[in-house]
Protein: Respiratory-chain NADH dehydrogenase 24 Kd subunit
Organism: Anaerococcus vaginalis
Amino acid sequence: MKIQVCAGARCTMLGSDIIYNRLSDFVEEFNNRIYKGDLDVQEIELEIEMVTCNDVCKKNKKNSPVVIVDGKIFTNAKTQVIMEYILDKAFEENFK
């Protein structure tokens, strides 16, 4: 699962760097637990990266910060919402 956090000026000013740091810790813990076998989730590995501005916030300035998870765009992103989405998606894919 690919997580992209916008590193554009507006998003950074509104906290995307903080979101990135918190999600990086979450990604590390998630991936470690998978490889240790603590979580019953198979074949899911999280990747996180900072990306250049994707112009989502240009449509509406209230959209910042922007985070994209496997193509799903989160505007006015909140760390907790992103984490919940990732966990829901990971377990949904494994327990169909």
In short: The chain has one domain: 2-94.
